[in-house]
């Protein structure tokens, strides 16, 4: 393995986390020394001070909205020290699936270094438990065309900024993260064509594939759902050594031509393996006999895809990738043996300065938000909203994520992602999070399993156009269910929201009956296509779970594709 000593990396991580508090103070000092000349910090009267106390008393907590004017100036080409000491070279574009609106986030070399540090750290722990042999990986990764801001800065998704960075490729090679597909496929102009070619490359190198990866679990499930539709066509391509006419992008065709040779033996083998599977169970290890695991972000809004992913994975372990966002990385998975539902992430204390707002359900907090606490002051079992200060001009930035402290690795906390703080279904005193919605859909899904059906995807909204307002749940189902089963699903969804505010409001009819809208097959693919049209890449896409009023295009797609509607009679 070129240049990577996993034991040394683990030792470095152990040393780093022994005195996480001290490392945090040093990290904040470094961030403020490097960026003390920035207009933003100058205006706040920090005057070169670098201690945590001065920093917290001078610098307010902010959201992206508070920084938009500064970020806009940078994007427009103002190269003066606005948020950072050195000019920002690139902007990352968030997917926009959470808020319905894409946003620019500063990206620089320091964030690139943080990314590689996170990847190296989690790889060291992963490789200790599941050592890889020499080979390749099947990666469902996609890059959007790099754009430019008005001022000439690079502008692409967070993943595009990584893939196009020269350090990324060498860094990935060092941790055996080599993709079996050529760059032309990753950077292909059409997602559907790239996906087809990723599958084809995986089959061509099937014996060498060591693991299967995508940024999010959703992309892996989507890839193998697609495989179910196109597997015979893929076998024909391999048999004849000719690429399907569905791939029209010239750069992609030329790259694939170099890999394809007529191989009837391989085609027959794959055909036989696929024909022998029962309902595609264990498809991934059947296709890729030397794969050690499946890797990607599998927590939070990705959890609903785990059941289908496990179906494809058979006995292969699922491993959740690290914890971060478009704004930067936070923590690494150093316990790779834990299943995704129990995954925790240890904060790297030197990649940013982190604070945590305690989230307590008590009357006092309704009027006054508790003061943030430091990285080493958090308590096991408590929930917090995370605050980030990074090397790219975000200071005391509210990420909007709710995390739970599950334990400590030496003195750094191990976090579990709970939900997005603002993704909440609420009409009056009720408060249901994305996780509550997920649990409710899981309960209803059990009724469908009895009918040999499954939930393909789901979303929700609050309808206050009626009086009283009600929750609306959109389900896409894998086949036809009876009226009785769907009515029972509707009642089950309603009953499964156990929040006291919701239950009492339903009983006294200040919240109306829950409405289930079953949508046509392919509706959620239309939502994906909508975001691809806005420039999001598939590997960055997350299905919007709670569609707010600002996200009217997604609301429109959902409402225009309703096949059947049911109203709950549960209360």
From TrEMBL:
Q: What family is this? A: Belongs to the IAA-amido conjugating enzyme family.
Which UniProt key words apply to this protein? Ligase
GO-annotated cellular components = cytoplasm
- The UniProt record lists the GH3 C-terminal domain at 435-547
Q: What is the species of this protein?
A: Populus deltoides (Eastern poplar)
Mention one GO molecular function. acid-amino acid ligase activity
Output this protein's name.
Jasmonic acid-amido synthetase JAR1
InterPro entries reported for this sequence: GH3 (IPR004993), GH3_C (IPR055378), GH3_M (IPR055377)
Tell me which Pfam families the record gives.
GH3, GH3_C, GH3_M
Please verify whether the record's keywords include Ligase. Answer: yes
Say yes or no: keyword Transcription regulation present: no
Per the database record, which ranges form the GH3 middle domain? Answer: 346-420
What does UniProt list as this organism's lineage? Eukaryota, Viridiplantae, Streptophyta, Embryophyta, Tracheophyta
């Amino acid at each position: 393995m070129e240049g990577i000593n996993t034991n040394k990396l683990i030792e470095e991580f152990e040393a780093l986390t022994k005195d996480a508090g001290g490392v945090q103070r040093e990290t904040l000092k470094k961030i403020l020394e490097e960026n003390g000349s920035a207009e933003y910090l100058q205006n706040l009267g920090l005057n070169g001070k670098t201690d945590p106390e001065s920093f917290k008393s001078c610098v307010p907590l902010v959201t992206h909205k508070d920084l938009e004017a500064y970020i806009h100036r940078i994007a427009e080409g103002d190269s003066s020290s606005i948020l950072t000491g050195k000019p920002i070279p690139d902007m990352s574009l968030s997917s926009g699936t959470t808020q319905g609106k894409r946003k620019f986030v500063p990206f620089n070399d320091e964030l690139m270094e943080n990314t590689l540090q996170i990847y190296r750290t989690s790889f060291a722990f992963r490789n200790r438990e599941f050592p890889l042999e020499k080979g390749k990986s099947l990666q469902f990764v996609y890059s959007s065309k790099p754009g430019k801001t008005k001022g000439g800065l690079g502008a692409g998704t967070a993943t595009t900024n990584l893939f196009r960075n020269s350090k990324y490729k060498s860094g990935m090679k060092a941790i055996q993260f080599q993709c079996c597909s050529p760059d032309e496929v990753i950077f292909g102009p059409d997602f559907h064509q790239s996906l087809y070619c990723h599958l084809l490359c995986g089959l061509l190198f099937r014996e060498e594939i060591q693991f299967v990866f995508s940024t999010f679990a959703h992309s892996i499930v989507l890839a193998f759902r697609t495989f179910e539709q196109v597997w015979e066509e893929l076998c024909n391509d391999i048999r004849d050594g000719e690429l399907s006419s569905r791939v029209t992008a010239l750069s992609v065709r030329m790259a694939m031509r170099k890999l394809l040779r007529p191989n009837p033996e391989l085609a027959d083998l794959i055909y036989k393996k696929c024909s022998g599977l029962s309902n595609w169970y264990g498809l991934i290890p059947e296709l890729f006999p030397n794969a050690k695991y499946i890797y990607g972000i599998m927590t939070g809004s990705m959890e609903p895809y785990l059941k289908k992913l496990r179906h494809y994975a058979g006995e292969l372990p699922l491993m959740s990738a690290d914890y971060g966002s478009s704004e930067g990385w936070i923590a690494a998975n150093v316990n790779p043996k834990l299943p995704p539902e129990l995954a925790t992430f240890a904060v790297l204390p030197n990649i940013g300065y982190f604070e945590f707002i305690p989230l307590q359900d008590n009357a006092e907090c309704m009027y006054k938000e508790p003061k943030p606490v430091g990285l080493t002051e958090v308590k096991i079992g408590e929930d917090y909203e995370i605050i980030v200060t990074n090397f790219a001009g975000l200071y005391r930035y509210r990420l909007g994520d709710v995390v739970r402290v599950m334990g400590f690795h030496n003195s750094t906390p191990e976090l579990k992602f709970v939900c997005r703080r603002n993704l909440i279904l609420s009409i009056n005193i009720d408060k249901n999070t994305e996780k509550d919605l997920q649990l409710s859909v899981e309960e209803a899904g059990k009724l469908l399993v009895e009918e040999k059906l499954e939930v393909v995807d789901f979303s929700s909204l609050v309808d206050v156009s009626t009086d009283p307002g009600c929750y609306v749940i959109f389900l896409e189902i894998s086949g036809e269910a009876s009226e009785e089963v769907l009515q029972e699903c509707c009642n089950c969804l309603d009953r499964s929201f156990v929040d006291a505010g919701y239950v009492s409001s339903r009983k006294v009819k200040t919240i109306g009956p829950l409405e289930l809208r079953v949508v046509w097959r392919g509706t959620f693919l239309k939502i994906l296509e909508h975001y691809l049209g806005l420039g999001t890449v598939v590997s960055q896409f997350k299905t919007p779970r709670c569609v707010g009023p600002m996200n009217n295009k997604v609301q429109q797609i959902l409402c225009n594709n309703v096949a059947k509607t049911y109203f709950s009679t549960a209360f």
